[in-house]
Design a protein that fits this description.
Blueprint: H1 4-13, E1 15-18, H2 24-40, E2 49-50, H3 61-64, E3 70-75, E4 93-98, H4 100-103, H5 105-111, H6 116-122, E5 128-136, E6 146-149, E7 163-168, E8 179-181, E9 192-196, E10 202-206, E11 221-223, E12 230-234, E13 239-241, E14 252-259
């Protein structure tokens, strides 16, 4: 489905912005289903907060077992200094994941709609497997920062094959926390791996000391996109997003795909013991 210019842009930049790839009605359907899942979520079931900037990321059972489930994670700023929830629970969720693309019919249909299989094939993925999905809320006023990172650090394969498909379910602007990415940054080395530690929990292991470009630096450019856009991200591309301090949410759906021909290590943090990997 990609033309020669788009392939050239992908190889040069490490990302593609594809406006109007998704029908706005499909975006609304996914947003409505997400609201239903959040409404059915029991806030007392757990209190896992998703902190995107600390090196010692949450590594409790909820997080480590979410590869084959649908789990919910709070926004850090939804709580006061005494760990009391200070906003409406339905407006306090950072994200949910990581297997709704296989477990929920609405998410499965969205994740496997045309032209996504054709898109991934054009990017050279020989045996695509849908590994992970996230519904990311970026809540008004409290939507947290996602620091500069490479997706391959978290979803590592040998060789690196992970590709992220990031769908704007609402308009994404600088004000409400759009993506920032480093054009050409996918040609730089993988800096680290986030993996399960032999002693329990998780750890970051440095692979290359080259600093990642940080949010606020000129190397990272904003990707402001309208609803229905698909942003394609190379697994080595540094990218992130600023916090959302606006009154407008920035709902997005992220789907990560790997090549089934590559090796997926047993110490990757995300494992799916109860859910075999599936393709389109």
């Amino acid at each position: 489905m990609l033309n020669d210019k788009q392939i050239t842009d992908w190889e040069r930049d490490g990302f593609l912005v594809l406006p109007e790839l998704i029908d706005p009605q499909r975006c609304d359907e996914l947003a409505a289903r997400s609201a239903e899942l959040v409404a059915a979520f029991d806030p007392s079931s757990h209190s896992t907060v998703f902190r995107t900037n600390e090196q010692n990321r949450v590594a409790d059972g909820t997080f480590l077992n979410s590869g084959s489930r649908i789990e919910f994670f709070w926004e850090e700023d939804a709580f006061d200094e005494h760990n009391n929830l200070v906003v409406d629970p339905t407006k306090a969720i950072n994200k949910f994941g990581h297997a709704q693309h296989d477990l929920d019919p609405t998410f499965s249909s969205f994740s496997r709609q045309s032209p996504l299989p054709e898109l991934v094939a054009d990017l050279g993925v020989a045996n695509p497997k849908l590994l992970q999905s996230m519904l990311i809320f970026k809540q008004p006023r409290i939507g947290g920062e996602v620091g500069s990172h490479q997706d391959a650090a978290f979803l590592y394969t040998d060789p690196v094959t992970v590709i992220g498909l990031w769908f704007a379910l609402e308009d994404a602007t600088i004000d409400n926390g759009c993506l920032f990415a480093q054009p050409g940054g996918h040609r730089s080395p993988l800096r680290e791996r986030f993996r399960r530690a032999a002693s329990g929990g998780t750890e970051f292991v440095e692979l290359d000391a080259t600093p990642l470009p940080q949010l606020g630096e000129a190397d990272l450019v904003p990707l402001e996109v309208p609803k229905g856009t698909c942003v394609v991200l190379h697994g080595l591309l540094p990218h992130g997003s600023h916090p959302n301090r606006s009154e407008t949410s920035r709902l997005a759906y992220s789907l990560h795909i790997i090549d089934g021909q590559a090796t997926y290590p047993d110490d990757n943090w995300l494992q799916r013991p109860d859910l075999p990997l599936q393709g389109f």
